[in-house]
Design brief:
20 strands, 18 helices, single chain, Rossmann fold, 3 domains
Length: about 625
């Protein structure tokens, strides 16, 4: 017997400032679902989750939750003002005798329940919100970026806990490994439309690329049909007026359909320019030690970083990863030992606190000025890898529109702030990149681009990250900090580190969830995409006609390219006087190609109509 859905959205429409976010959205969440909610930054993932939680009222449509079903939502910025400690907030709403649930979640997430709310960091507040929903265990958990501010130990615990829960889960996350290990279905938001795929995140990118390829093919086919019909409308409208009026109405309908097709948002134009080559030796640390208030951060640590190295620093929160970075770059002196920097270093820093961005200034000023030095932004241009660019044009490369250029940085989302900081870094040449948690808040496509850019970067990269997939793709060396002063250097990325540890997670990070070795082995391969079904024989077409229909698009493209070249040649105003024979030949060839193109488009249109009959 089929079970009733936990949540159903029907005909949801929502707009902000006149711009539609969703229109006619239908969505069902079933018991036992493990769903990854994915989409570009700004596509409406968090908004949709708030609609699902009942926190945002849509302009139209209905949200239905059966009686007795509890829906829990983990907010990114929870309000803890009514509670003295993080533990008191996490336990609010639980019955007597259920405090152990909060204690278990707090231990797994690395949260101190006795931390006063007044002194808690943003990351601690988010972990408290996550501990609360894990302790409550509602029928449906809605988790918005639960892995942000979690270290690898806590992420591994969360994976195990969510895999064992009876609750249905819908989760937004930038952590690919987490989504692959957890999800069994995918909700994809793209240009206001929500698609559901009955496969986990491991198969998402193949699915997305197939959908986009089908869209492109349909758009190109419609464009060819519109061109052919538009040519007919100009040249052949005199005869059979009644049928002609029908074709004109059909042409208008096709143009309306084409106009309604929403173009996919482009990707950020990421690019790094390597400055002058640094010395072959970039950093040399010898028996470095550092402690705060008697607690060892790092003890007797040595490493040599050579030009072009890719080094990842991993470990639990509070282990001292950022402190180690500051010592390696000379920003902070060690208590003992020595750090020697190489020659000719140009350092660019992406800090996890986004301290280089002043929330009070506009994007324009933040890009052209330097808040750290108190230098305001007064120019309308920014130097990008040695060439001047207008501020608005450069911001558009990173997917900001002109209206945002004069808006304050405080109005940006986490992903937008990350993109703005990347824009600042990538405008200047460098040969040593320090990336402290660069993956937080970036969407999948931007992460892909960042990985590609780092792969082509000739300089040296040192990064801190809890994203196992990102580490595997980038790092050639991994430094594991255990939180007690120890730091061990492993060759390779995350998976290589696990392999060198005998397939068991080192003690510095979470022990592997029982019965699961997702983190210890390479990511599971995406399920094989079903082989495309053979194209059905077009109804009413002979074999020869079918072959001709398949060949015509290439012929049309070739003729269009030739026409473009000939038109470019004839655009020379001196060609006739200089080479009259060449001018006459080019003119004749252009007329032939234009006639051939018109015939090919008419033939393609006729065969398409016959095939669809």
């Amino acid at each position: 017997m089929a079970r009733a859905p936990l949540l159903q959205l029907s005909g949801i429409a929502l707009s902000f400032g006149g711009d539609p976010v969703f229109d006619g959205l239908d969505l069902v969440v079933q018991p036992g679902d493990r769903v990854a909610l994915v989409g570009r930054n700004g596509s409406g993932k968090s908004t949709l989750m708030k609609v699902m939680a009942g926190l945002v009222e849509p302009d139209a449509g209905e949200r239905a939750v059966p009686p007795g079903i509890a829906v829990g939502y983990m907010e990114q910025e929870p309000d803890l003002s009514a509670h003295a400690t993080l533990g008191a907030f996490a336990a609010s709403g639980l019955g007597e005798g259920e405090a152990w649930r909060v204690a278990a979640a707090a231990e797994g997430l690395g949260l101190d329940p006795d931390t006063p709310v007044a002194t808690a960091s943003g990351g601690e507040r988010r972990r408290a919100a996550l501990a609360k929903i894990m302790a409550e265990a509602p029928d449906l958990m809605l988790l918005d970026e639960p892995t942000n501010h979690l270290d690898i130990r806590a992420i591994a615990w969360l994976e195990e806990a969510l895999a064992a829960t009876r609750s249905a889960v819908v989760v937004i996350s930038h952590d690919r490994a987490f989504l692959r290990n957890l999800s069994r279905a995918t909700l994809w938001i793209d240009r206001g439309r929500v698609r559901r795929g009955e496969q986990g995140f491991a198969g998402f990118e193949d699915w997305r690329d197939r959908v986009w390829a089908e869209e492109d093919e349909a758009r190109h086919k419609l464009d060819r049909k519109i061109r052919a019909e538009a040519r007919w409308a100009v040249e052949g409208i005199s005869a059979r007026c009644k049928r002609n009026q029908g074709r004109l109405r059909a042409l208008q309908a096709m143009r309306a359909d084409r106009a309604a097709m929403i173009r996919r948002q482009g990707t950020a134009a990421l690019g790094l320019e390597t400055g002058a080559a640094s010395g072959r030796m970039v950093i040399e640390a010898e028996r470095v030690s550092k402690a705060f208030d008697g607690r060892a951060i790092v003890r007797d640590f040595s490493i040599r970083v050579m030009r072009g190295d890719r080094i990842a620093v991993v470990g639990p929160n509070g282990a001292g990863k950022t402190t180690l970075l500051k010592m390696l770059t000379g920003e902070m002196a060690p208590d003992s030992g020595r750090v020697r920097l190489g020659t000719n270093l140009e350092i660019a820093v992406f800090d996890q606190a986004r301290a280089a961005l002043d929330p009070a200034v506009t994007l324009w000023d933040g890009l052209t000025g330097d808040p750290a030095l108190g230098v305001p932004g007064r120019s309308d241009q920014v130097m990008v890898r040695g060439a001047p660019r207008h501020v608005v044009g450069y911001l558009k490369d990173f997917l900001f529109d002109e209206a945002q250029a004069r808006a304050p940085i405080s109005a940006l989302s986490g992903g937008e702030r990350a993109r703005l900081l990347l824009a600042r870094i990538m405008a200047r040449p460098s040969n040593l990149l320090i990336l402290d948690e660069p993956t937080n808040d970036l969407d999948v496509e931007t992460l892909d681009l960042l990985q590609d850019v780092l792969g082509e970067y000739d300089g040296t990269v040192i990064l801190v990250s809890h994203d196992r997939d990102f580490i595997d793709r980038i790092a050639a060396t991994t430094v594991l900090m255990d939180g007690d002063g120890g730091a061990t250097v492993y060759a390779g990325g995350w998976s290589d580190m696990i392999a060198q540890s005998g397939g068991v997670l080192p003690a510095a990070v979470a022990p592997e969830p029982p019965g699961r070795k997702a983190a210890a082995r390479p990511a599971a391969a995406a399920p094989a995409a079903p082989a495309p079904a053979p194209k059905p024989a077009a109804a009413g077409l002979t074999f020869t006609e079918r072959k001709r229909l398949d060949a015509l698009p290439d012929l049309i493209a070739r003729l269009e390219a030739e026409i473009g070249k000939l038109a470019g040649l004839l655009s020379d105003p001196d060609l006739y006087a200089r080479e009259p024979v060449k001018f006459a030949k080019a003119t004749e060839m252009l007329a032939e190609r234009q006639a051939a193109l018109a015939a090919a488009e008419e033939e393609w249109l006729m065969l398409e109509e016959k095939a669809g009959a």
